[in-house]
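User: Round two. Same drill as before: sequence, then structure, for each protein.

Assistant: Same drill it is. First protein:
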Amino acid sequence: MMVLVDTSIWSLALRRHPSDLSPSERIIANSLRELVHEGRVQLLGAVRQEILTGIREQAKFLKICDELHEYEDVVLASDDYENAASMSNICRESGIAATPIDMLICAVSQKRGWQVFSTDRDFIHYAKVLPIRMMMPFRSR
């Protein structure tokens, strides 16, 4: 099954030094590496933009751009955006605040039958009211 990887996971793996990661963060970074090895990673263009935003050092920006060039952006259609808006409305009606990019991640993953991989706890709340599946980090293989 394909996995739509959120900004929080990419940032952990690409923007942080491995020695600065906690044991649980290392498990997450290793899980991403395993997904990459298996060819199961999917990336939204909006997530690509979030990953690269705020990188002050040009050399690091270019290095991460190069690493992300391995992944084509998921091609989106109008109904992906419409479904994201609908999901946002469902969350709002349930008292759950949601960002447009998070809802796009939910809509794209739900439509395609993919899992979402994120450390953002908001997705736990979304999953209570939306038909999304979360990927849990691999403990050991």
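Second protein:
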Amino acid sequence: MLVKDVGICLARRDYSETSQISTIFTRDHGKVRGIAKGSRRPRSKFSQGLELLSRGQLVFSSPRTGSGLITLTEWTLQDSYQQLRRSLQRLYRAYYLAKLVDLFTEELDPHQRLYDLFSQALANLSAYDSWGDLLTFQLNLLREVGLSPQLSGCVRCGVSGSAPLVEPSGHLSFTEGGILCPACAGAITEKSRVMPLGLELLRRITAATGSTESRLADHLEDRPARQAQELLSYWIRAALNREPMTAHLLR
């Protein structure tokens, strides 16, 4: 049976002289891995470009028994996000987000909302090259997969507000689920030191109009943005139990 959907290419590799294997994050069917037979021929049903970070409409068959692979039969390009490819910084940030989507999702597990957020994040990065969009999507992704950090107050004693938590001895702990105040952090071994400006920025993004969907200003100050990214990088590394291969691109 053939199925039609829209999707964004997360990864691809050559399979033979004429074909390739692509990982595509689809809106209605989740992440799929499939063989695009003949996609490397000059004239094929994939000639519009099944490239990394391209968005399009695809037609595919059900997975073959035992292989887990689908067969891609058609690809109609809808957006190649050309602006991303004119700036290494924008492209690297987009590569990083694509890798996170790949790592945090399972095959054939639909996440329609996450697909929409990812598509919008790529469009925003194409237009603005913004720290805000990079940070916002990571918080959105963590929320959608149920791994959001608690940032509003200490997860152990409930101390709220920013003052007690931005001292040098404050920490973020993945195993505990969020922020630890200085008094509670001493008993926890798995933790990362809180950087005050970064924490405040993550709180601002999370609190914006009650969600992480609204865009912040296109240009955030570099120091708090980098601190916020360091905190998110720690959290993501702990959640995956490894560092994403594309993490170095953000440095």
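The radius of gyration is 20 Å.

User: Perfect.
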